Amino acid sequence: MSKTWFITGASSGFGRELAELLLQRGDRVAATVRKPNALEDLAAQYGERLWVGILDVTDSSAVRRVIDRAFSELARIDVVVSNAGYALFGAAEEVGDAQIERQLDTNLLGSIQVARAAIPNLRRQGGGRIIQISSSVGQAAYPTMGVYAATKWGIEGFFEGTMPEIAPFGIEVTLVEPGASRTSFASSSADMAQALDVYDKTPAGEFRRMTATAGLAMFPGDPRKVASAIIASADQQPAPKRLTLGSDAYALVHKALTERLTMLEAQKELAHSTDVDGLRHG
């Protein structure tokens, strides 16, 4: 059965891949972009099955207005994909205040506002699915990606608390954690801080050199395969809470979680020792 999807940031990257695949298979897509002509080719090919809205997710009032209009005009939206975002690269000392604010406004606050605007509409129609594009960096970060990682850890924390709130209304959520894929994400859409020479011989400098010389080997993910896996996840019941995509993503997340659990177990006795005297622990 065909579905109706709402996708933010559909002009490039995973958003564009999703829109193309969904339209090809006969689904209906409500896509938001920042530039009016970004999806002209798809509009010409698919006509009324493609609904286009102009949206910058950093404009909270516009987020609610566009999402409300999409639900009103399309009657029902089955899946909301919060995809709009970009990466900021730079050590904590290197990135500027304006760069940090824009990164948080887009990736974290923008994603929160998309969810907040979608939830009442999904609730009123009796349920649906939210797919939030996070990142494997939402579980472990690389040097020079601390601020970007903060937005992904932040949105995952937001949904950890929000999922049980909205589950009684039939609204399910999947956090997608892709690795490095061969999209324009790390090039044309990225924001680079001015590198400081003092970091040249630190892990930040080593990571920069590695990314500069690794070429495509550092980007094993196939964007179309990632998009296909995301689409397939919308048919899974119950919804997978997390979807880790890419061999690099699996390795990074597995290492991070294993190390975190090992450290936690080592602190079990200490953790219990700080409770009020007389409590019994299982």
From TrEMBL:
| Molecular function terms from GO | oxidoreductase activity
* Oxidoreductase keyword on record: yes
- Keyword list, A-Z: Oxidoreductase
Q: Which SUPFAM superfamilies match?
A: NAD(P)-binding Rossmann-fold domains (SSF51735)
Pfam families referenced in this protein's UniProt entry, alphabetically: adh_short (PF00106)
Report if keyword Oxidoreductase is assigned: yes
Matching InterPro entries = NAD(P)-bd_dom_sf (IPR036291), Sc_DH/Rdtase_CS (IPR020904), SDR_fam (IPR002347), SDR_oxidoreductase (IPR051911)
Regarding protein family, the annotation reads: Belongs to the short-chain dehydrogenases/reductases (SDR) family.
The UniProt entry, under PANTHER family, shows: SHORT CHAIN DEHYDROGENASE, SHORT-CHAIN DEHYDROGENASE_REDUCTASE FAMILY PROTEIN
**What's the protein here called?**
Short-chain dehydrogenase/reductase SDR
